[in-house]
Design goal:
The structure is a single chain. By secondary structure, this protein is of the alpha/beta class. It has 2 domains: 298 residues, 3-Layer(aba) Sandwich (Aminopeptidase), CATH 3.40.630; 113 residues, Alpha-Beta Plaits (2-Layer Sandwich), CATH 3.30.70. The protein contains 12 helices and 14 strands. The strands form 2 sheets. Strands 1, 2, 3, 4, 5, 6, 12, 13 and 14 form a 9-stranded mixed β-sheet that branches. Helix 1 packs across helix 4, helix 1 crosses helix 12 and helix 4 crosses helix 12. Keywords: Hydrolase, Manganese, Metal-binding, Zinc.
Length: 415
């Protein structure tokens, strides 16, 4: 697999150049239905066709490559991940889960190897939600759970998702019908390879790990309203300082997550008005994101958070508006597919480590269509969503060997 890994490494370098930012200095920025998305799809289509695959682009701008079985009635095994990035992100997040199975299929094609099942690779158009205020656009469309109202959401330039997809050459009206792209009984499952984006595998000294669950996520928008005033003349005891209220919320939210190892959370965005150096803040807005692989723990924490916010801000004579903007339930990976993946790792002479994903992935949508499983690849320093995101090239060989074993095992299971 050394040569396959070298080819994959080169493809990853080329894909990183499909970016609005200079990836070597600023990281990769590639959003749905943009010129950079188009440039990447052109590259992917070329590589897929060279690997003996047929290609198509669906109404959600997902690219689907198909490596057909020799059997006319074969079921389909799907690999895939997302092509989009966060602004100034890393060059492995998402795209690795497209190019790694593609490199393996290219190897199969060169060897003249066919299976008792079809292999499809999907480059999902959007998972991050960096351009439009919705995540998992591509995989939700494939799974048949796309909300048609999302077509009317707008980006920072006021362009709707509907118009962006239409400009990209897609037919977004077809998404309103929301049928799944596949019959459930025609599929063997969905596998995603992804960088871990955390430090667990590196600390364990392991190149890969098995994901047993994908975290649940919820986001909230909090607007706190106080009263502006002169910072030098209003006594401290008489102030209604919105930013002080926000600081209180941030502290209690952080403590809530610190007290429960099943939770992680972040206050990721803050705006302050009027934001003057000598003006008491009148309005402060912040986002609260809460994650847990155990939905019951997350819902319990939400209730406690809402209660604490009300108590603290009421005590400070501040008014507020708190609105939930997003929620995605946690998803367990298929026990059967995970067992097969575990056997594939064992056959590669790699110790098996199970871990849950604290990040969201396309499997959150795809599990509505078929069974899912995930393979994590070690991330250097656990760093992701950053221009310095890195992996070890030798780990690509390990992952390729695991996926090769996986295909052999699934082939043996087919009648």
């Amino acid at each position: 697999m050394q040569q396959v890994a070298q080819q994959l490494w080169q493809w990853l370098e080329e894909a990183a150049q499909c970016s609005t930012t200079q990836w070597q200095q600023q990281g990769v920025t590639r959003l749905i239905a943009t010129a950079e998305h188009r440039a990447l799809l052109n590259q992917l289509k070329k590589w897929m066709k060279a690997a003996g695959m047929t290609t198509l682009i669906d109404p959600a701008a997902n690219l689907i490559g198909r490596y057909p079985s020799a059997s006319p009635h074969a079921k389909t095994l799907i690999f895939g991940s997302h092509q989009d990035s966060v602004p100034c992100g890393g060059k492995y997040d998402g795209i690795l889960g497209i190019l790694l199975p593609l490199a393996l299929v290219n190897y199969f094609h060169q060897q003249g190897k066919k299976f008792k099942f079809n292999i499809e690779i999907i480059a999902f158009s959007d998972e991050e939600g960096a351009r439009f205020p919705s995540a998992l656009i591509g995989s939700k469309a494939i799974a048949g759970i796309f909300d048609g109202h999302e077509l009317e959401t707008t980006d920072a330039q006021g362009i709707t998702l509907h118009q962006a997809l239409k400009n990209f050459g897609c037919a977004p009206a077809a998404l309103l019908q929301k049928p799944p792209s596949y019959a459930r009984d025609s599929l063997l499952g969905f596998f995603e390879v992804h960088i871990e984006q955390g430090p667990v595998l590196e600390q364990a000294g392991l190149p890969v790990g098995v994901v047993n669950a994908i975290t649940g996520i919820e986001r909230h928008q909090l607007t706190i309203t106080g009263k502006a005033g002169h910072a030098g003349t209003v006594p401290m005891s008489l102030r209604q300082d919105a930013l002080v209220g926000a600081a209180t919320v941030i502290k209690l939210f952080n403590q809530l997550c610190q007290d429960n190892p099943a939770l992680v959370g972040v206050v990721g965005k803050i705006t302050n008005y009027p934001n003057g150096v000598n003006v008491i803040p009148e309005t402060t807005e912040l986002t609260l994101e809460l994650r847990s692989p155990q939905d019951a723990k997350r819902l319990e924490a939400r209730a406690k958070l809402y209660q604490q916010i009300d108590q603290e801000l009421t005590a400070q004579k501040l008014s507020y508006q708190l609105q939930q903007s997003y929620e995605q339930a946690a998803v367990e990976c298929s026990k059967q597919l995970t067992q097969t993946l575990t056997r594939a790792i064992e056959q590669a002479d790699i110790p098996v480590r199970e871990l849950f994903s604290g990040a969201g992935h396309d499997g959150l949508a795809m599990h509505h269509l078929t069974d899912i499983a995930m393979l994590f690849i070690r991330t250097v320093d656990g760093l992701s969503h950053h221009r310095d995101e890195a992996i070890v090239q030798q780990d690509l060989i390990s992952a390729l060997n695991v996926l090769n074993n996986l295909c052999k095992l699934i082939n043996q299971e087919q009648q």
